[in-house]
User: Fold this.
Amino acid sequence: MKKLFDEDENEAQMKPQVPGGSTPAGDEEEEDFSSGRNRDKIFENDYNTGNLDFEEYTNLPKVDIFYAEDNLKECYDSYEYSRSVKLENLIDEYFQETEYGAIFASKKKIPKQTLPQVFVSIRDKFINNDYTGVEIFTAIADYFGINYEILYENIPSLYRAELVKELDEKYGVLKKKGIKRLF
Assistant:
């Protein structure tokens, strides 16, 4: 027979074996469970006993504040992020001052019928303030929690054409597909 774990050969020979591989009934050792009653159910957990000693970390981990800028340049630009947050805050301030802000301020949900007017008023306010139409469009959609497609479908076609033209100038999508005229 093979050894199980670290059994001595003598101990293995002394235990009688039944054809199924177990010891015969009646010869099993009884375990003493009485000592386990005072122990916590989780191994070496002193929380329930009131012993709450802990170690203080003297060497705190160091955090590199430039990690995102150094390692995530392809997918994260901190300058663009801070710019979009600033634009969203400006939109919030402006929206609270408008007539629509007085009506919808508590909800931040705007009916589809008023989306074109709200979009045009916010866009006209910030288009000349060093923000592009695409940045304003995404900031408005994010601010109101509106899907980009729903906002795009509800804005006037003139502004849709401007958005597509701006995206084409930046990424050249229409030129690659050979589309010369949009509308």
Observations:
- Residues 26-30 have pLDDT under 50 and may be disordered.
- The CA atoms of residues 168 and 174 lie 6 Å apart.
- The chain has nine helices and no strands.
